[in-house]
Write a structure and sequence with these properties.
The chain is of the alpha/beta class. The chain contains 26 helices and 32 strands. Keywords: Coiled coil, Golgi apparatus, Membrane, Signal-anchor, Transferase, Transmembrane, Transmembrane helix.
Amino acid sequence: MELLRKSSLPTPLFPERLVSEHSTFDILVSSGITWVASGADLCYALMMYGARTGVPLCVGLSIGVLIALLTSDFSWQPSVRRCPAVALSEPSVPQPVVDYVDNAEHWKVVVKKPPSTQPNAHQDVPHPGNQLIRARYAATELGIREKLIVVVLGQSSLSVALNASIGRHVPRVQLFFENSRIDAELATMANISPYRPNGQHAHVSILNSIFNQSFHENYDWFLLIPDTSYVNPFRLNDIVNHVNWNVPRVLGVANAEGNCMLQGGILLSNPALQSLIQQRHLCNSIVKPSDPEALEQCIRHATNLSCSDYVENYDYRWWKVEDSGEAGGASAVHDRVLTLSKYSGFNESLTVSPLLSDADARTLHEHFVRVEIAKLDEEIKKLDEESRQLGLANVDGPSWPTAVPAYSKAPNRYQVPKWEYFEGNVIFRNKPNQNVEPLEGNDFLDVKEVTAVAKAKVAEDPSSQGLTFVRLRNGYRIFDPRRGMDYMVDLVYRSSDDLAGDAELIVKRVHVCRPIVNTKIMHQVPYVKEDTDVTVVVPIQSTDDVAAFRKFARRHRDLCVSSPVDSRQTRIAVVMRGVDAAAARTVGSELGEIKATCKSWQMDTTILLLRSEKRSLFAVAALDAAVDHYGNQMIYLYLSPYADFQKEFYDRIRINTIKHFQIYVPIPFSEFHPQIVNAYNVLTDYEDKIAAGKSDSGSLADNMFIDNEQPVVDRLKRLNMMADKKKAEKPLVVHKDQGAFDTNDFSVFAVYGDDYVQMLDVFREKHGEDALTNMLDLAPMFISHPSIHILRAVEPTLRLRYRPKVCSNRLPTADYARCVLSRSETLATKAQLAKIIFSHLSGKS
């Protein structure tokens, strides 16, 4: 197509079409260039240009549709297109599959929702099917609220005294004060709510504040009271704990108009206060001469409840001092409490007014505390009498103390009681080595006193008239921590008319109980820190102690290797006296190896040398040196070099040693004499071989040159030569044939430095410096202290290897007896000694 004319025309603001009257011309105006052509030519030109553009477009679309049909899935799954960048950054979330089912009849779309799938464990985006469940308080779920709140309408500092007196006995006390009345003392209180009256009565702002703080939803009962009235918290708790709160109630003392008077207090249940808060707008237009009268009228109008002073067998009593009818009614309350206490109505009153000073509130509170204690004492007496009456129906008779199970019934098979049998001069105990002991010391005094009480009890019996006491036949005793010490005593009597003594003796059995006199209740649990620094004080004063310390150091290094990390500070202080320089160098090298091996334990070591001429007890001298060196703010563990322990022992030391309260004296497992144990094992193995037919009786005697005529020491040496070295050198284990727990051993203890210094000073003031010289150990010092407790417990992780015990004649009687008993009990068992001494071994020697 050829263009007819091209001309320049003014550039229009937008394209437009111009139509001529005589010929058909289309003038296209665009961007300042005008094209003019006829209608036929224009159509031909458009067709040609359309073919050029349309053919490639159609071919491309056809190829694209063909490729899409070959590669696409024909299932209908609607999806949301995403930008590739977003698809890469967001985790893939499975979309719900929706199936559209078309019904030709009604053209209704039915959407089937697939079941929600579980989210992938690696997804961070929450699955649409999951619901967020918030944790809530159990009290909120169950609708549980606090029982009571006391709302004090404050005007002066009396509110502080009222808060201090009753605040400990009620769940909450809330003070409402006008802003202009709050001083520096009141501003520091956390339970104060200020308000501004803004030209209205105070109750408008107070009710709005209660609503804003949601007090009406969190408590069952509400007591409104001014600070010029005292409330008896014990009587108040008695009412709110027994009266149903779910009923709308307004309790108080009504005036002539039927409104509860605020001066005597107004007690509202939760539904009543809910109505008051919801209808508080009715109180905005109340006009009264005073704020209390306006609040009284507001409660009556908003709740539509009348004031009641009696509910469910409880009286609401208000004691007004001016109306008591006594002379000087206007005097202060605290001067008249003694007189008012004679009236039963005053002691049972819920509120007392008016309060003129802080002394009034304090005196009234002390009085009502005494009244409550007297009531509790009366209730305890009634319960005691009821329990005593019920105890008479027991098969075993009445129990004592009241309601405590009888001593004859064990709680279970693991706590079967063990009785101690005694006679006039001996006592039988359940011990592995010595069953019979002389009746002496405290045991003798105990039996003597019990016998005297039993004789007095028999003398009171009318049927025992004419009988003469002969002797104590025998008796039994048992200790029960709930009852005390129980005794069964058999006393022998004869008739007073039997001068020749031919008549049969009469035995009277009496049950005597020595109750527990004093029981201490701990109101505050002592504070224990498990990361306290521990200083281990190891005493060494001989060459044998140095050899034992080498095993001690080897054991400590093994603990460091087995437990490589311990952030707590542990120190080892070796205190030496009376040893040579070579022994000191040996100990120093062992401490150096411990420090190098136990770097992760924060181990610190040192050697403290003492003068040899010092005569005091070595334990006192060693602890004095350690405390002077390290200070008195840590735990000091006095540990024998013969000790074999485990890591848990240090943990129990930190837990059981309590500053200013308790020291820990463990009961160690003491090893028997190794030669006796080895000889016993040899003889036992030999007897087992004979029983199995693998040996004869003469071979052992012939080979070891053992004869019955040999001394016991020589026999021990011969038997130990035959002992298996592997069995002899095995580690010390807790077994009845290897040792025993020595209750007479006080050589290991843990104490705070402060407590040790205090106990030492008290002991020196009481017994003098010379008493520290001739002591076996520090047990007398621990026992005699009045305020520091002693914890003794079996410690299976602490084992003491055998060492000879020397009992000096210069020791006090009690210490010497304890030393001899400890030495005999840790030598060997009776069975081991009997087998070695009485085994018949005849051989050629």
